Every structure is written in C-alpha cells, then in structure tokens.
Amino acid sequence: xxxxxxxxxxxxxxxxxxxxxxxxxxxxxxxxxxxxxxxxxxxxxxxxxxxxxxxxxxxxxxxx
Length: 64
Prior knowledge:
Layout: H1 3-30, H2 36-43, H3 58-63
C-alpha cells in the first residue's frame, strides 16, 4: 500500500473519530458543573473597557 493511500484512509476513519471524541471531551470538560467560576472572569474580557479604552500602561503592568 502506498504511504499516501494509507495516511488518507487513516485520516478519513480513525483520526476523524479521534478528533470527534476529543472535541466532545473538551466540550464536556468546559461545561462541567465546577467550571463556572473558572471561566467567569475570562468570559468578560471583551467587555472590560466598554465605555473607554484601557489606560496605556495597564497591559504592560500586568505582564511584568
């Protein structure tokens, strides 16, 4: 069997199944009951400075 044909068949069957199961696992991990507090603060990042831009040195101060 040619290498390309083997890899194509593998990607079409088992790798697709693996990636689907991985995706479902990540969704279940994020939506588990204890994860609400973990993701509450990051979910509000886009709305943090809704009325005015962030101060110029704020991002630099957090990285240091």
